[in-house]
Amino acid sequence: MADLYTVTDLHLTLADMTAKPLFGAAPRIEILKGLTFTIPKGAVVGIVGGSGSGKSTLGRALVRLLEPSGGSIRFDGHDITGLSEPALRPLRRRFQMIFQDPMSSLNPRHRVGTIIAEPLRLHGMDAIQSRIARALDHVGLPQGFASRYPHELSGGQRQRVGIARAIALEPDFILADEIVSGLDVSSQAQVLNLLERLVADLGLTLAFISHDLSVIRRLCQRTIVLHQGRIVEDRPTAQLFADPQAAYTRELLEAIPLPDPDQIWV
C-alpha cells in the first residue's frame, strides 16, 4: 500500500504562552522532537497521548495549520513543508480537518448549508447545492438541516455538520482532533460508526487524535503514541494493546476506566 503521508525528523517549536516576560518575546519551546512515520493510503491511524504530548500540534502540522521548524512532511509525494499558501492551495482541498468543538468551529450566524458551501466556493468547486445535499446524506442528516443554524442542533448533529463540511470537498485525508470527547456515549458511538462507514464508502485516509485509548482501540488499525513530543510506540493497535512495549503506553492502558472493577489488563 502506497503512503499518503511521509513525515521525516519533524520538529516544531512554539512560543511558550504560559510565560509572561516583562521584556521581549515569550521563550520558545520545542513541542515536536524529531518525529518520523508514515500514513498509508486508506489507513485509519490513531494518534494518542496525554495533555501536552504534542498530538494536536502534530495534527495541525499535518494539515499545514502550523509550520514545522525542521524536518519534512510529504503528502502524496509532494513536499508541503514550507510551501506558501498560494502554492499549497491546489493541495489543501485534499486534506481536511474536523475540530474538537463543533460549536466554536461553525459560524453561529450562518445556516448549515452556507457553512458547508463556504469551503466549496473557496476552492472554486461546481454544483455546490448538489454537493451540500450529498454531504448531508453521507452523514445521515435530512436535507432540511441545510436551513438550520448551529444552535438549533444537538452536539452530535453539529459534529456531523463538521464532518459534512470536510467530506464535501472530496478529500483524500481527514484529520479528526478529539471529535467525540465532548459527546455522550451514545453520540460517540454513532459518530464512530459514521467515520467507519465513510472511510469504507469514500476511500478516505483518517488520522484520529484522542486521549481515549478505548476509542482508538475501536476505530484505528494502527496507533502512534506520543509522549513529551516524541513517538514512544508506532504499531498495529491490536499488538499495542496485547503487548505494550513502552512504560508510558502501559500507563495509558492502565488509566482506561474498566466496566468491571475486578477486570485487569493481561
Instruction: Indicate the structural class.
Output: alpha/beta
Q: State the order of secondary-structure elements, H for helix, E for strand.
A: EEEHEEHEHHHHEHEHEEHH
Unreliably modeled segments = none
What spatial order of strands do you see in the largest sheet?
6-7-8-3-9-10
Give the N-to-C terminal Cα separation.
32 Å
| Proper CATH architecture of the domain at 1-17 and 34-90 and 175-180 and 208-254 | 3-Layer(aba) Sandwich
Number of strands: 10
GO biological process, one term: transmembrane transport
Keywords: ATP-binding, Nucleotide-binding, Transport
Protein name: ABC transporter ATP-binding protein
Family: Belongs to the ABC transporter superfamily.
Could you explain the architecture of this structure?
The protein has 266 residues and is α/β, with parallel strands linked by helices. The chain has a domain at 1-17 and 34-90 and 175-180 and 208-254: P-loop containing nucleotide triphosphate hydrolases (Rossmann fold). 35% of the residues lie in helices and 25% in strands. The protein has 10 helices and 10 strands. The strands form 2 sheets. A 6-stranded mixed β-sheet has the order 6-7-8-3-9-10, sandwiched between helices. A 4-stranded antiparallel β-sheet has the order 2-1-4-5, covered by helices on one side. The mean pLDDT is 89.
